Amino acid sequence: MPTMPQDSPENSTPDDQVTSEKHQRFDDNNALVQLVRFTTVGIFTALIDFSLTWFFTFVVGWNRQIAKAIGWVFGTLAAYLLNSRYTFKSEVNAKKALAVFTLYASTFLIQQFMYWVTNAPLLALGFDGTVKDAISFVIAQGVATITNFVLQRVLIFKKD
Fold first, then answer.
1. Which segments of the chain are extended strands (E)?
2. Were 111 and a residue from 30, 67, 140, 153 both cysteine, which residue would form a disulfide, CB within 3.0 to 4.6 Å?
3. Which residues contact 30 (CB under 8 A, 6 or more apart)?
């Protein structure tokens, strides 16, 4: 009696077929799929960061650098949790959390520097208040996002 090939649809369960079809549509390890997910998470968590930065600067009246630091902490925490599970399909664990924290701490310094250094040129160009801070935020966030995606994909959440 001839045997059926292992990957024949007749020998697979409905769950296997659904899983197989899903992997044909979206490969979770594909750089483009991960980039789209990373960008989606990044936009959402940047809104958290910017909202808190704006709130503490313009409503509470705190120094803009302190407000930015608070926004960054909450945005970064949300980004790590969402990117671990949604973007890179990885377990949240202490080793990866420490690696991401170290990466984010280094880009935090760059982001803070860029947020600070863009202030004077934007004022000189006639920008002020929320518009100036939004432009500074986008510049600083853009550099951090690109750096974080590349380093997280290549070093932290690489597939073994």
1. none
2. 140
3. none
